[in-house]
Amino acid sequence: MHAYLPAIGFSSIKSNRAVEYIAEEVVERYTKKSVFHSEDGRLMAEYSKLFAKNAGVTVCGELDEEGEFHPDYVYPFYKGYQVTSNEEVSIEEQTGKDAYSGAFDDVRIGITIIFYMTNMPEYLQLKESKLLKPGKNKVILSGLAMDGTILLPVRRTKAMEAIRRQEDQKRVSLMNAARDGDEEAIESLTMQDMDIYSHLSERLVREDILSIVESYLMPCGVECDQYNILRYIRRVEVAKNIVTGDKLYDMLVVCNDMIFNICVNTKDVMGEPEVGRRFKGRIWLQGEIAFSGRKWSLL
Asked: pTM score, two decimals?
């Protein structure tokens, strides 16, 4: 978690003492505070403070009988503002600390998306009150990137784009049918994958891989919520960390109609991000769940 502090502007963090200093600042001058019970009955507290637009640090820990706060862990966060998905989300507690991961299947990407849940207090409060309802929930994803590279887009005509969209819609329909057990849909998808593999093998002989694969989202490393991504930039803004002065890129990226925001320090990006170009990098995927259709808001 500490490794991603540079993504929100703390590029000079080199020691645990520096992280402790930031944690002390958050607890003393927090933007938001939540008090809740853990699943085993302990009284917990979470302090959050913004250091840039939609970006900040959260400190989570336990309150003792005298009300004194004992910090457990610190993590940087970035609040997305675009609904990414509306699917059934499964939530699991992470091993070794009071934190939770969310997961959902998205047919547009074809994999299970796993993310670090940033609104844990709300989840535990609803669970304790037995107000959680089964069904689909909106998920607002965001990503913190340690570094990145800006790539030019793949050239496409309007006709090619229309054909691509039709193919994507047909594949999503087949994926939904296959998920419901349709054997014909499963067979069609298998044949499509074989054709794609054969076609790619031929093109790789004479073309660069990044001109063939326009975008992707792939799990990487041992952490289940970290991904390698290549995505088109739909919008880009610049924010500033009010403490360090570091500038941050806030990018809205899209792939197969799946949209979310990425925050990265401008010092760690090679190239100039612009609308239509592609961002390539490794991200820590975070997410906020709007339980039971509740409204969500930024800190």
From this structure: 0.86
